[in-house]
Amino acid sequence: MTHLKGSNRIENEDHTSSTLLEQNAPSTVLELPTPSTLKINSTQKTKRKLLLLSLLMIVIDLVVPLILYFILSNYIPAFLASAISGTIPFVSIIINFIFLKRVDTNGILSTTGFITATILSIIQDNTMSSSLQPLRQSIHLFTTGLVLLFTLIPLKVGSFQMRPLLYHNFKNMGMGNLKGLTEDEPIPERWERYWRTFVEFRRTIVGLTAVWGFCLMLDVPIRILVIYKTKTPEQAFFIGSIVTFAWMQCPVIFSVIYVKLMKNLLEKRLKEKESNTVAAIVNNEI
């Protein structure tokens, strides 16, 4: 009996120790993340890279030229400082287009702004300078809107075909959460495929570009009306800035409503396409 009790005790101790060892022993089985997790992580990494690249281009195209302009304007004429500063985004446009096959939207807008500032600086000593001063901000907006509308022209030179400027801007930032054929499909190829395949997608980009272009250009006649109704340039500048801010809310509200509407239409189109594909596969198997 004593032997049995002792043996039972030893067996229990062995069982307990083996259990503890099994619990504390490191697992030799690697727990791999699910495919969906891997896909989400790869997509997020791609978007992060695009976002970081976009931020870097903003620094090169906007921040650095502005800093250079404010430094140079203390030593040389304003028009010359503006012209020199504008060469930085202009060179960035060329490098991105030739070597990276990428349309630098920030560089285009920045270069347009510096060209406009250079022209305005040259005629600043003119007798019309007091009248043009309240219009300086609107003229910048006008040129930006003109560029947006110009990119709606379907020009084609060789293998290059013009797309709306907002198309390139959104694509460079990885916006839109477009569904790929595979998770490894590059974002530029997704955008190109959506542009060629879905009319709802094209209408969204074209509509946003057109509305923003017209609204930016219409700020000039609105500001001229404000100047005509006010007595001093200071009043015109102050009231005009408030009117411009209020007016710019119109394309913002339109964009929110229009994008939501077109997104619903596009999702409906995608579901119909998927159901038709499944039905075709089933019919072929039958």
UniProtKB/TrEMBL annotation:
Keywords: Membrane, Transmembrane, Transmembrane helix. It comes from the Eukaryota. The chain crosses the membrane at residues 50-72, 78-100, 107-123, 135-155, 205-224, 236-259. The keyword Cytoplasm does not apply. This is Membrane protein.
